[in-house]
Amino acid sequence: MGRNIHDIFVIGGGINGCGIARDAVGRGYSVALAEMNDFASGTSSGATKLIHGGLRYLEHYEFRLVRESLMEREILWAMAPHIIWPLRFVLPYHKGGIRPAWLIRLGLFLYDHLGGRKLLPPTSVLDMRSDPAGKPLKALFAKAFEYSDGWVDDARMVVLNARDAADKGATIMPRTKVVSARRENGLWHVETTDTITGRNDSHQARMLVNAAGPWVDHVIRSAFGQNEAHHVRLVQGSHIVVKKKFDDVRAYFFQNPDNRIIFAIPYEGDFTLIGTTDRDYTADPRDVRISEEETVYLCNAASEYFKEPVRPEDIVWTYSAVRPLYDDGASKAQEATRDYVLKLEGEGTAAPLLNVFGGKLTTYRRLSEHALEKIGAAIGAKGAPWTAKSHLPGGDFPVRGYEAQVDKLKRRYQFLADQHARRLVRRYGTRAEALLGDARGIDDLGRLFGGDLYEAEVTYLVEHEWARHAEDVLWRRTKDGLRLSKEQAQSLEEYMAAIPAMVG
């Protein structure tokens, strides 16, 4: 233990930590990453699941962040067309609304032209009296603006970054808690504990990257012993999922009287996702749950637009996460910057430390590139930026090739139902064939746990994506938790407890 000296040791298995690890190992650095829980078990799976420029950030003059985000949309779509795809958003408007039409038009003009849009269609104006998008809404909304952004399976994007980092040689350690980190003789000496086995290990690294998300200050205080650390503002965002409220494939952007916005988004075929809230959070991020106040807020806000009200009893699932925003002193949670901040510490011969604050899904790749610039300055540059033209695992097919990929899978595995094939391509892309292997009939996929989740898929997730528990499979690697009963989920948990963890 401790004999191998890594160039970089990353703390945190969210999107920023996994993105930095992937970029670094692809440039030739030796990399280790430790995540105390499962990948994307915190903020990175609790987002609104959008690859977007952040239209509302324009109101806070965050033009650099919006431009970078807009530029990233099509880059990320091309990197992972299985888990990222375009989504049109309908922004209903009525006279006397929160924002005047000229301001919305100006914002959407900037949105169309700031970021080098090539494939995504531009903004258009809708007559809601004739357009199908007006059908589920109140008659008050006779007009709407429609614009483009993107959708992402957030937790899968995280685990695919981890998978690619591991494939390129990084040491990836989920369920591994960093107990302490100290500088000694120009190196970091990091002590870790496997939270499953209790095994303690020692590691050495030339540089440490703290990408612990909501726990970034906690890591600074506990692992490094710096008691005064206070860099992040924790903001809770909660979402509700209800049975499908509309048949349209487009999403809605709703403006609320309190100047906040919420989205209503088609979700997993049979549901509608509504969110998010924005409120300061001071408790332990592990304990975050949607509050009754947030539930009522989201239901009421959506009901201002939909003809058919959204009621608490319609909710089939909720999720909450804590966003670790950089504390810029903003007075309101929704006004705090969504931009990221990278702070490099370590002078002279002291081993350098990079603390990562803030960030969002859309800009994780650029954050990683900027982190590598600082890493190169601190310990010596290796390799050139490479991720812009890369593919995440399973994403090596044309950016508009999803339907062709589904057809290809159905031709090879003719026993697959259409919806099953579609879900497999959405999750695994070209790697769906590795999951299905030599199967010639549905029985070859093994035990059915519920929905269309078969033993073959569970085995793949255990062997290739570090899944250890039913929750990992049902709520992060997939969203089959929406379709399985409590009894079926318990049966899956018992099955997984009886098989060994064996990530290759």
UniProtKB/TrEMBL annotation:
It comes from Rhizobium indigoferae. It is an enzyme of class 1 (oxidoreductase). GO terms for molecular function: glycerol-3-phosphate dehydrogenase (quinone) activity. InterPro entries: DAO_C (IPR031656), DAO_C_sf (IPR038299), FAD-dep_OxRdtase (IPR006076), FAD/NAD-bd_sf (IPR036188), G3P_DH_FAD-dep (IPR000447). Its EC number is 1.1.5.3. SUPFAM superfamilies: FAD-linked reductases, C-terminal domain (SSF54373), FAD/NAD(P)-binding domain (SSF51905). Coiled coil: none annotated. Residues 387-494 form the Alpha-glycerophosphate oxidase C-terminal domain. It catalyses: a quinone + sn-glycerol 3-phosphate = dihydroxyacetone phosphate + a quinol. The keyword Oxidoreductase applies. This is Glycerol-3-phosphate dehydrogenase.
